[in-house]
Amino acid sequence: MDTAFQTAAVDDYADRLAKTLRGPRRARNDLVAEARDGLRDAAEAYAEEGLPPDEAQARAVADFGPVAEVAPGFQEELTAAQSRRTATLLFLSTPAVALMWGVLWQIFPADFDVVKPVWFEVVARSVDLIQVATGLTGAAVLLRLRRTRRSRGAARLLGLLVWIQAPLMAALCGALMFTAGTALSAFPGYLPGQVATYVSVAFWAWQLWSAARCLTSAGSAPAR
Is 199's pLDDT higher than 60? Predict the structure, then answer.
């Protein structure tokens, strides 16, 4: 018998399931492949019992359940996976960026005559507190996801947190770098400062992209 014909209904079901899911590509492909293999095994079992191939597949698909009923369970796993990725990124990258800038400010060239306006220390401390809070939030989400499979709220929290704090951090850091006097304004032209700026922007872009995927994944996971 034609192998392609034997698995046509199973493949169609797996393809429809894949189109409804949002999350990390590798995790999504693994889940769909697992579902496809399970359906094929069930169809083969029915075929061995004497059912025609098309009927065996239809029976296997019916036993598995409609896509609309099966997808939420799969989506919950993908949302958890995306939340873990984003939380890990925040937990690791935020302290790394803070440390990088902390070291840079300590070795700031002594010949620069830094003139700090009255608001400088307040803004600098606010940046530090935001970074600490963001890293701790990532750690807290990682711990929570180890105890529960309910990940929709965590994904939304991470997504909103990043999309709020990233523009805020850009504004505050821009204020520190470019409006704190001529000495600080010249700092981005200093090579380590340029490198640190590019690294920071790269991490912010990565965090925003990951946070957007969190929001998309959470929006695809119906509440239970």
Answer: yes
User: Which ranges in the chain belong to alpha helices (H)?
Assistant: 3-6, 8-20, 25-48, 53-64, 67-106, 120-147, 152-178, 182-186, 191-219
Among residues 175, 177, 164, the alpha carbon closest in space to that of 204 is found at 164
Going from the C-alpha of 130 to that of each of 26, 137, 138, the distances in angstroms are: 32, 10, 12
What is the value of pTM for the model shown? 0.81
d(CA 116, CA 181): 7
CA angle, 220 as apex, 224 and 80 as ends, to 5°?
75
Q: How confident is the model at residue 2 (pLDDT cuts 50, 70, 90)?
A: very low
| Vertex 212: Cα angle to 206 and 217 (nearest 5) | 125
pLDDT tier for residue 109 given thresholds of 50, 70 and 90? low
d(CA 82, CA 95): 20
Classify residue 25 as exposed, middle or buried by CB count within 10 Å of its CB (0-12, 13-18, 19+).
Answer: exposed
Q: In angstroms, rounded to a whole number, what is the distance separating the alpha carbons of residues 154 and 141? A: 6
Q: Decide: residue 183, CB within 10 A, 0-12 exposed, 13-18 middle, 19+ buried.
A: middle
For residue range 24-80, what is the model confidence (pLDDT) as tens digits? Answer: 999 999 999 999 999 999 999 999 998 998 899 999 999 999 999 999 999 999 999
CB–CB of 38/75 below 8 Å? no
Using the 8-state DSSP alphabet, how is residue 110 labeled? T
